[in-house]
Amino acid sequence: MGDATPSNGGHAATGLSDAEKRELREGLIATVVGVGVDDAAAHLLIQQLSANPDALEAIIQPSLSDAARLAALHSTGLLDTPDSGALDTVALLTAEALATPFAAVSLLDDSRELIIGRNAVHGDGERVRPAKLAIGKFTVVSGIPFIVDDATVHPLLANHPLVLSGQVGAYAGVPIFSDDDEAVGSLFSWTTRPHNWSGGQILVLQDMADLAGAKIFHRPI
């Protein structure tokens, strides 16, 4: 996603009314949850994004910049050590348990995603990337798991650079919450080809996200 410059026939993201923002949030949640939950809201979101590809920024950026969420994020002390690999073991165990090639743990502030755990170096190998490239932002903003069997046909991911490049073909992410229920990041796994995520894999991913949260916030395991 780019800046808030309006595309032909659309509003600037910052010029959306409160009602339009509510519709966007409802559509985002419906699209993240998947087919059959609220197809009308998801369809409306797709229409809005067709008119204005940057429309989601009106709800994504304010959510990422929320003061309480950022306070919880900074309380981890991990934003200052992006290269520590503090949760590499959690990512490794996640990939092994899911039998998938890649897994990672990330924290997301208002401008960047920090990979604080990964089972393998992938792509450019960097542990910090711009928030606009973070697929995990959909998990953090919605506060619910984001499960995608085929990223190439998903309305939120089909045009994402990581999908277009072939690095991501399927994706499954679960939010990580602070003690005050602020979504600060996510645990996610992905494959380079479409993959049908099983119910068992999703349950394991949720359990491992709880483990990651316990380590990040020093909760009893």
Automatic annotation (TrEMBL):
Tell me where in this chain the GAF domain is found: 86-214
* Family annotation (InterPro entries): GAF, GAF-like_dom_sf
> What positions belong to coiled-coil segments?
none
Q: Which Pfam families match?
A: GAF (PF01590)
Name used for this protein in its record: GAF domain-containing protein
**Biological source species:** Mycolicibacterium gadium
> The organism's lineage?
Bacteria, Bacillati, Actinomycetota, Actinomycetes, Mycobacteriales
